UniProtKB/TrEMBL annotation:
This is Uncharacterized protein. PANTHER family: E3 SUMO-PROTEIN LIGASE KIAA1586, RAS-ASSOCIATING DOMAIN-CONTAINING PROTEIN. It comes from the Eukaryota.
Amino acid sequence: MHCSGYCAGNNSVLLQTWTGPAEVMLTSDGATVMLGKHNGVAALLKRQIPHLTEQHCVAHREDLGIDDAWKNVPMMRDVETLLRTVYSTFSRSTVKRGKMEDLAKILDEDTVSFRPLNEVRWLSRHQAVNAVLRNYTVLEEYCKR
């Protein structure tokens, strides 16, 4: 197997050539700079490697689908509001965070830091939901007081 590298800025694409059937695949996010039909990286590479197959990354597509669902389902908008409110409440106030930690000690519970929602970071929703769930007992008691 012979490998040659193609570098574009900080992005590096590894091209592999087999002794058997020629197969080269490029998987990337769906950005025009990567998959654009005329001047995207895939189009430029395909001019030199006609048997190149390009594909929009499955993980990127999944994240885009989740993002669409998140924005279009009313209950998910309510969950997002809750997550943002909880994060901003405790991230901006050391007093509130300290009271929450004191309450966790009284309840003999462990706490984790609340996580922000970030539009461009994969898993930020998962991390934010997970933090609320892991802190739920303490958070519920905190809200009662």
